Amino acid sequence: MRIVVCVKQVPGTNQVYLDPETRSIVREARHAVLNPYDTFAVAWAARLGSQHGWETLALSMGIPAVEKLLRDSLCRGIDRAVLLTDRLFAGADTWATANTLAMAVRKLGGADLVLCGKMAIDGDTAQTGPELAECLGYAVVTDVTDIKEVSRSQVQVSRHTESGVQTLLVRLPAVLTVAKDSCPTRMPSIADLARGASRPLECWSAADLGADPDRIGQRGSPTRVVCTETPPMKKQSRRLEGTLEQQAASLECIIREIVS
After folding, report:
1. Largest distance between two CA atoms of the chain
2. Domains of the chain by start residue, with CATH
């Protein structure tokens, strides 16, 4: 049995902007961190792998600097890691990203369970997980708050819905996107760091996947950002003069102007 957890780098600071020509997000790699939602997917993968003795593998697509984030996953209990890195992957939308990840999962020989964070904090689309399931032909459950029982053929999960919490029994293989705080996380110990440093980390290119250039990266992305703009900052201040009662009356007038 194999559990694959898909992780992504996101900007760790404000070092992110939109390229005016390509209209794609430019991320400052030096400040990249592991997507916060993905930390819970990693925690679930390590927990389930340890409980059941299953192989766990972290998978990510990005620039070579992402290797340090995969190393962090290895330090948190993941067995193996694979980085998909190639200039041909650049500019991918969520569909091209999902298609690339799916090719990597197939190259691994498939997965019994694929775990992703609910969404990435830079794009907020929550699309890659469900699209990955579509590419693989797997069942999918989103916004999972608890993974209750796992066997070789099915998994029982709870998820958020508009009306409350829903419990589902899902046949494997499946893709689950997990919610924030759905699994306890912990800081790696010195022993964990040493273990993570000794674990294998592979790098695969588009050629290694046998990928069609028309189905990956910007060329394989069916969506385009046609217009971007920065909203103008409209900040005004007014100084309230007079006694406390007069200031309160002035503030009431200002509030009435805003809501009227």
Report:
1. 76
2. 2-215 (3.40.50.620)
Beta strand segments in the chain, E: 2-6, 9-11, 16-18, 25-27, 32-34, 55-61, 80-84, 113-117, 139-150, 154-161, 164-171, 174-178, 201-204
- What is the rounded CA–CA span in Å between residue 168 and residue 155? 8
The conformational region for residue 164 under phi > 0 = left, psi -120 to 50 = alpha, else beta, is left
Task: Quote the CA–CA distance of 143 and 166 in Å, as a whole number.
Answer: 11
What is the residue-level pLDDT of the chain in tens, covering all 260 positions?
999 999 988 766 555 555 666 656 555 555 667 888 899 999 999 999 999 999 999 999 988 888 888 999 999 999 999 999 999 998 888 999 999 999 999 999 999 999 999 988 877 788 999 999 999 999 999 999 999 989 999 999 999 888 888 999 999 999 999 999 999 888 888 988 998 888 889 999 999 999 999 999 988 899 877 766 667 777 778 889 999 999 999 999 989 988 87
Which DSSP symbol is given to 230?
P
Q: With beta carbons less than 8 A apart as the criterion, state whether 199 and 80 touch.
A: yes
